[in-house]
Each structure stands twice: as C-alpha cells, then as structure tokens.
Write a structure and sequence with these properties.
Layout lengths: L19 H22 L5 E2 L12 H8 L12 H20 L3 E4 L10 E4 L1 H19 L4 H8 L1 H22 L22 H7 L6 E4 L3 E4 H7 L1 H21 L4 H19 L8 H4 L5 H15 L1 H8 L5 H31 L11 E3 L5 E3 L10 H8 L2 H4 L7 E4 L9 E2 L5 E3 L8 H4 L1 H25 L1 H9 L10
Antiparallel strand pairs: 1-8, 2-3, 4-5, 6-7, 8-10, 9-10
C-alpha cells in the first residue's frame, strides 16, 4: 500500500497578482484616498466638481477647503466616536439577524484538504427585515427618519470608520492565519496565493482561505462569506435611500431618476442575496483568501462608490420621463437576462448534466474530470455572465446624463437654475460634463474589474486543465463580449 501523502495547510504559491507588494499597497491605500477625493470634489456645498478644480492655475487652498467642506478641525473631523459606535451597532444588529432569523444550511465545495464547510444563509431575509423596519420609520417620520439623516449628515465620518474597520479586520485575520496547521480538524487552510512571505502582499490578498470566528451567543460566523453579502451590500441600499430622503429635504420632491437607480441597485443586491448559495462556487470563496482586498471591497468600496450616482442626484435632480425610463430599463433588462440565464444554465449543468434543460449542451470532458460547456450561453463567450453583469452597470450612470453642476447663492436668478427649498440655485454651467468623471466612473471601473477577473480565472484554469483549457479556448474564442473581446 502506498504511503499517505501529508496534508499541507499551505497549498503551493502560484505567484503575485495585482502588481505584487507595490500594487497591493497602492490598492490598499490609494483607493481610500480616491473615495475621499470623490466625496470632497463632488459635493453639496459648491458643486460637482468644486469650482476651483475647474481653474487649477488660480487654485487657492483656503478657497478650495471652503468649497469642498473640509472639516473645521482638520483631520480630526474625519472621524467621530459617536459614528463609530453606531457603525458597530449596525454590525451587531446584522449579526443578531444572522443568528435568529430562519436560515438555509448548505455544504460548501470540497476544500484542498478534502473537507467541506457548512454555511448558514439568510442574507435575503435579513435585508428584507431591515428595510421593512426602515420603511415603517419613513412612513412615520418621512424624510426626517433618523437613519436617513444620520447617513447623509455623517457620510464622511462613516467612510473613515468603515475604512478603519476594514483595515482592522484584515489585520485580525492575517495575524490569526498563522494558527492554521496541517490536517486542521476545523478544515482551516491557507489560500494558494496568500502565503508568499511578503507581509504587505499577504495582508492584502489574504492568507487564510475561509477564516471563521465564534462569538458569544452568536455562534460561528464565516467572516468572508458574511462580509461578502451582508453589511456592505445592505449599506449600499441604505445609502441610496438616505440620498432619496436628502433630495426630498432639499427640493420637496423626488425624481424618477434617483428612484430608478435605487430600485435597480436594490434589485441587484436582493437578487444576489436570494441566490446566496451560488456564492460558494465563485472565485472569492473557492480561491481568494480574506484580506484587505475583500475586507475593504466588501465594507467600503461597494456601499460608498456604488452609491455615487444617488449622492449626485440628491443635489442635482434629473427627470428621465417615460421614454428615458423605458430606454434605461431596456438596457437593464438585457443585462439581467444575460446574467441570470447564463448563471442558471451553468448551475443547472453542474448540479445535474442530465437535466432536460441542459442535457442538449455540448461540452469537453477534461482529464481533471470537469466538463467545460462549449454550447448554449457558454459557447458564446467564456464569461458571458460578466458581459450581462457589465451591461447592468450602465443604468446606474445613464440617469445622471451629462453630469456636472455648480451651486449658487440664493437670489442669483441664474437662467435654467433648479432652486432648493432654502433658496440656493443649482446650474450645470461650466461644470457640465466634468461631473461624469464621478458618475460614470463605476462603468469604467467595473469593466477593468471584470477583465482582471477573467485574466485571473484564465490563469487558474490553465493550471488546472492544461492542454484541455487550450483546446477549450480554441472553440470558445470570445472572453467576455461576444465576437468583440
């Protein structure tokens, strides 16, 4: 009998990604700065962008500080202990819902060490419960509901707090990952790309694959899966709702554009949470460790960047009308159809290749025992679901139009100005078009993200399938966009 191979808690490292340690540092500390720039440069005090930014040659620092709303007490104003306390309360509330609401118990995919982890899923019901409570509060108190005013009034401090929490969480799981041992009875293991030996890179990419923690009364929580679909995703919806309320407080009405974006994005979040078990086959769960990349992305990047459009529209209302609504909705419907049908087809094939809905599909049988689809949706492009996902990002930005505005003092009597209830006037002026840097950034970013994911997946599959993957790529030539890319 051949001797048993020793199980290793640390799979073979497959090299740097994201430009190595320097790239990891750039992403970890550069993206937070970018979010601060977005907050200050596109604001509700002077304009989007702030007027001084349109005249860099004559830019005066003190004037710029006034225009962007820089805190009177400087950097200390970026943080608030009260806000920090409420953010922790928000996390605790979400954790309580995770434990007390009914949940679906699901077993994950097989790990490198041979084990399978159990997951508890109820993100959808948790979000619905929270939104129901907020809806009741809004019915009772309208746009002055404290949750909405707190978010919009403390946006800057909320950003700082969640950035610090994401850093602290990444540091916690990094330090704790050194407890992982071979043949761990709890199936703890390291991510293949997360133990390079470089502290900066491993802290960013994540050393441990599926870090878990057991909390008093709340029980065990899978940190990565929990952060992926709960606080940040719900926070995204809550921020959008807060900006709707802010628009009403500023103007006394709510426009169809801000409602449309909020509904579209809420549907995207709720759809993902409703299909929560499908996350177990994503690269985030199966391959990536949990480090700053996912911690910052889940808790900060998603809610604060993705709500940029509603934050913009809260100050510069835009009306689409029936034809505009129909056009934007058509783009959304096309993207969602491609995204959902392709993913459903893939999941159905994985569960039961003989199911009548997928039995007709052609595939390649690999030496690794996996079947690669080469017909149906997956015969059109290797990541046709990414194409659908990217199309769904366009309706987030299109309602902002040719973005850009300047805020004038009350009584300016500017032509074509939109008047706030306090008398201030908002016009496009020379800022017209420059605001698109902020409101359309998401589309560009998401395209880069999906292309990068495709590249990472290609490397992973090339290592796993070898010559079979080369054969597959000759048959399915398009990566994401059919017949284009």
């Amino acid at each position: 009998m051949a001797p048993k191979q020793k199980q290793d808690a640390a799979p073979a490292v497959h090299g740097y990604e994201f430009g190595g340690p320097l790239g990891a540092a750039g992403v970890s500390f550069g993206l937070p700065i970018l979010l601060y720039i977005f907050n200050f440069a596109c604001n509700d005090i002077s304009g989007c962008p702030a007027p001084s930014l349109l005249h860099p040659k004559s830019l005066d620092l003190e004037t710029l500080k006034r225009e962007v709303g820089w805190p009177a007490n400087g950097f200390c104003g970026l943080l608030s202990l009260e806000v920090t306390g409420w953010v922790f309360a928000y996390f605790l509330f979400s954790a309580i819902l995770y434990r007390v609401l009914p949940a679906t118990e699901v077993v994950g995919t097989q790990l490198a060490g041979g084990g399978r982890l159990k997951y508890r899923f109820n993100a959808f019901s948790s979000t619905v419960f929270t939104l129901t409570v907020c809806a009741a509060g809004t019915i009772a108190q309208g746009a002055e509901f404290p949750v909405w005013t707190f978010i919009s009034d403390n946006y800057l401090q909320l950003l700082t707090t969640t950035i610090l929490i994401s850093y602290a969480l990444a540091t916690f799981v990094y330090v704790r990952s050194f407890q992982v041992k071979p043949a761990d009875p709890e199936f703890r293991e390291l991510a293949a790309g997360g133990h390079s030996g470089n502290i900066m890179y491993d802290w960013f990419i994540g050393r441990e694959l599926n870090p878990r923690i057991t909390l008093p009364l709340l029980g065990e929580i899978d940190i990565k899966e929990w952060m992926e679909l709960r606080p940040g995703m719900l926070g995204w919806i809550l921020m959008n709702c807060a900006f709707i309320a802010k628009q009403y407080r500023l103007y006394g009405y709510v426009t169809d554009s801000i409602v449309l974006i909020t509904v579209i994005q809420a549907f995207y979040v709720l759809d993902g949470q409703f299909m929560e078990p499908s996350i177990l086959t994503t690269i985030d769960i199966t391959t990536d460790g949990f480090g700053c990349m996912l911690s910052f992305g889940d808790l900060v990047w998603v809610p604060f960047l993705y709500s940029t459009q509603t934050r913009y529209l809260a100050v510069h209302p835009q009306t689409l009308g029936p034809y505009g609504l129909a056009a934007v909705s058509a783009v959304l419907a096309a993207g969602f159809t491609i995204f959902r049908l392709s993913n459903n087809q893939k999941n159905a094939f994985r569960l039961n290749p003989n199911d009548p809905s997928v039995a007709h599909l052609k595939y390649i049988e690999t030496k690794a025992g996996t079947r690669l689809l080469i017909s149906g949706w997956w015969g059109v492009a290797r990541h046709i679901n990414y194409f659908g996902d990217w199309l769904q990002s366009w309706p987030y930005s299109l309602p902002t139009g040719i973005a850009g505005y300047t805020i004038l003092a009350a009584g300016s009597q500017a032509d074509g100005a939109i008047k706030m209830l306090d008398g201030r006037e908002v016009i496009a002026g020379e800022a017209r078009g420059w605001g698109m840097v902020f409101t359309y950034f998401y589309i560009l970013y998401f395209a880069v993200l999906l292309i990068h994911r495709d590249g990472r997946d290609d490397e992973k599959c090339s290592r796993k399938y070898g010559e079979d993957w080369k054969k597959y790529k000759k048959i399915v030539r398009s990566k994401i966009v059919p017949y284009v890319y």
